[in-house]
Design goal:
Layout (H helix, E strand, L loop, with lengths): L1 H15 L8 H9 L4 E4 L6 H11 L3 E5 L3 H13 L4 E4 L5 H12 L5 E4 L1 H4 L2 H7 L6 E6 L22 H8 L7 E6 L4 H10 L6 E4 L7 E8 L2 H15 L4 E4 L3 H13 L5 E3 L5 H12 L5 E4 L14 E4 L6 H8 L9 E8 L8 H24 L5 E3 H7 L5 H10 L3 E3 L4 E4 L5 H23 L4 H8 L14 H8 L1
Parallel strand pairs: 1-6, 1-7, 2-4, 2-5, 3-4, 5-6, 8-13, 9-11, 9-12, 10-11, 12-13
Antiparallel strand pairs: 14-16, 15-16
Length: 487
């Protein structure tokens, strides 16, 4: 065991320049190298990528890294290539030349790591290559695995089809092939952990559950009374912090564009960022922010996942978050250098009588989710009991068909036989959809309770994500703790 640890440290020092691992990186790497399935919940900035990149270099064959966002993949692959490590990337925005070169390296088994979006992995041309018997695969990494549970239905429905990847691959490989699955995420409450394990068919996974608590994040919730007051509060804050690097979060693409333009008119150089922008524009905004050509970005939740900027000094939620899972991901991007970072959230007064902005937004979001669930249930009656997703796409004139399939899978009314073929579970009823609706209601209610709680903000967050803080736990920095100290 000592020799193995020394070998890992030597590799760490050679390629990453560190003398030792952070806890529990070494334990995670050892578990992956021994072929165990793993579920790793580790805070943003905790060094998750190293935990699967290093073992991939020490094994023969290919490790597939399934990731939801282009920026996340490109940043990590660029860093690996700068170290002269054999890594490739495939997604819808890759140039024809790079795609050709990556496929050539894949077919000649020159790669140790291949980053793919879930859609690219399951595209017939790529799947045909990866599933070829001669392509040796030793592991599947599912990065940002919370997408399976918290965003899988509406963000990237293809995530719900990943559960049968391993058995289908093993059917095409030699009999002695073993493929371990390791899932990484920064946030996963107990229910999300169960969903990840069940959806991906993890076998007795070893769990590494690290608290998301960051003692250098100073959380504050501010009540505002009018839409004008919201804008004034933001502008006053930016004026005080305009020389520091920050992020402003909003909930919709439209809000991102409108607020960015408003702030430009006020003389503050910035850019809007959301999932509706082209890949080239998103990469340009990310680069400008990372190199501090602009100090802040007005963004939706699409920004930040996998982007590492150590000196992010403030995170401003211009609109109250809808889900705590998004919120804790977003605030976790701040202060990765360990220096105190401010996390500010504006919320309308709690009753919604004087300023109904947040209340209306919550209700709109919930109604949209309910509408989707109801549409999915109607869609259930339009499709055959058993079917193939490629054939279905040709017959069904509905752009949301994959989204509906994902919802039906989440409600257990549909089961994926493999990533391409499904069968309906006729024993499940309308109540299955009702359970999803009730889950959404509880999650939105939980966020509202967080915003209005009188207890330590971090104590509430830790409890919400399955970590049990001590009875007397106080972070000592959030607005509620500071009120207690002053009183």
């Amino acid at each position: 065991m000592k020799n193995e640890i020394e070998r890992l440290k030597d590799t760490l020092k050679k390629y990453w320049g560190y003398d030792d691992f952070r806890k529990p990186q070494a334990e995670i790497i050892e578990a992956i190298l021994t072929g165990k399935d793993c579920l790793i919940v580790m805070p943003t900035g905790g060094g998750k990528s190293l935990c699967f990149q290093l073992p991939a270099l020490l094994q023969e064959g290919l490790t597939l890294v399934i990731s939801p966002l282009v920026a996340l993949m490109e940043n990590q692959v660029q860093e690996l290539r700068e170290k002269n490590l054999p890594a490739g990337i495939l997604h819808s925005e890759v140039s024809k030349v790079e795609r050709k070169n990556t496929i050539s390296a894949l077919e000649s088994q020159q790669l140790r790591l291949l980053y793919l979006s879930p859609e690219t992995l399951l595209s017939p041309p790529i799947w045909k290559i990866i599933s070829h018997p001669e392509i040796k695969i030793n592991g599947l990494i599912v990065d940002e695995a919370h997408c399976l549970a918290q965003w899988g239905e509406s963000f990237r429905p293809t995530y719900r089809r990943l559960g049968n990847i391993r058995p289908l691959l093993l059917n095409n490989k030699t009999s002695d092939t073993k493929i371990a699955i390791a899932c990484f995420t920064a946030t996963a409450d107990i229910n999300t952990q169960k969903t990840i394990i069940q959806s991906l068919q993890l076998f007795n996974p070893e769990k590494f559950l690290i608290s998301p608590y960051r003692d250098n994040l100073k959380i504050q919730i501010k009540t505002i009374w009018t839409p004008r007051g919201r804008k004034q509060e933001l502008i006053k804050y930016i004026e005080r912090n305009k020389k520091k690097s920050g992020l402003i979060y909003v909930r919709t693409r439209k809000d991102s564009e409108e607020l960015a333009n408003l702030l430009k008119k006020e003389g503050y150089e910035n850019q809007a960022y959301h999932g509706g922008l082209s890949g080239n524009i998103r990469r340009k905004v990310e680069s400008d922010w990372l190199t501090e050509k602009i100090k802040f970005v007005v963004c939706t939740c699409a920004f930040g996942m996998g982007i590492n900027k150590s000196n992010l000094r403030w995170i401003f939620h211009y609109q109250a978050p809808l889900l705590l899972s998004e919120y804790i991901q977003e605030i976790g991007r701040g202060g990765r250098d360990g220096i105190l970072t401010e996390v500010i959230t504006l919320m309308s007064e709690a009753s919604g009588w004087l300023n109904p902005e947040d209340k209306n937004r919550r209700e709109y979001f919930l109604n949209q989710q309910i509408k989707l669930y109801q549409q999915a249930e109607r869609f259930l009656k339009e499709i055959p009991t058993r079917g193939n997703i490629e054939e279905l796409s040709k017959k069904i004139n509905n752009p949301n068909y994959q989204l509906y399939l994902s919802i039906l899978n989440s409600s257990q009314q549909l089961q994926w036989i493999d990533p391409y073929n499904y069968c309906l579970n006729l024993s499940k009823t309308h109540q299955s959809i009702e359970l999803l609706i009730n889950r959404q209601k509880k999650l939105i209610k939980q966020t509202h309770e967080y915003l209005t709680t009188k207890i330590c903000r971090w104590s509430f967050l830790l409890s919400a994500f399955g970590f049990s803080p001590s009875t007397n736990f106080r972070c000592g920095k959030c607005d509620n703790c500071l009120k207690l100290i002053r009183n």
